[in-house]
Amino acid sequence: MTIAWRRMVAWSIDWLAILVWVGVVAAVGVPLYLAGVIRMTHPLLLNAVGAVLIVIPVTFALAAFEAGAKHGTLGKRAMRLRVEPAEPVEAPEQLDFGRALLRNALKIAVPWLIGHAAVYELTRTAGEGMLGMVLLVAAYVLPAAYLVTLFTGSHRTLYDRLAGTIVIAKS
């Protein structure tokens, strides 16, 4: 199996873990909402709550797994992959947290938040506004660009290039 396909399997494993977290948040939030304890209707507030409860913790958790001695998320470790700096300076095997956070913010947080903003804008305008459609296209084009760069050329995704990272197979 090529490294690109191993990364896809790893990402699928990671998404299962992410969905567990989403389930935990929903198991707490939905009953509170239905009981009337939480009543939020403003799209910006809903997006902010989603970011604080789901997107930010997921992004930070994935970065923590990839930084330091862990070298990878649960999926990457299961598929025997590791994330490293593309051009090591001092400790070639260690990815610092800042770079891991940038990598995961570009990979996870940016497309996810753009997608949320698109849904809220399209809902708010009943699909009539142009901004919602622009955001929706961006929310799909960005991950598509990541996939294209994963399967072409050097197999480094756009977010890996921007963060200065590389994913390699463990020996």
Automatic annotation (TrEMBL):
Transmembrane intervals: 15-37, 44-65, 130-151
InterPro entries, per the entry: RDD
This protein's UniProt keywords: Membrane, Transmembrane, Transmembrane helix
Domain RDD, residue spans: 4-164
Domain of life: Bacteria
Keyword Membrane found: yes
Main location: membrane
Compartments where found: Membrane
GO CC terms: membrane
Lipid bilayer topology: Multi-pass membrane protein
Protein name: Putative RDD family membrane protein YckC
Organism: Lysinibacter cavernae
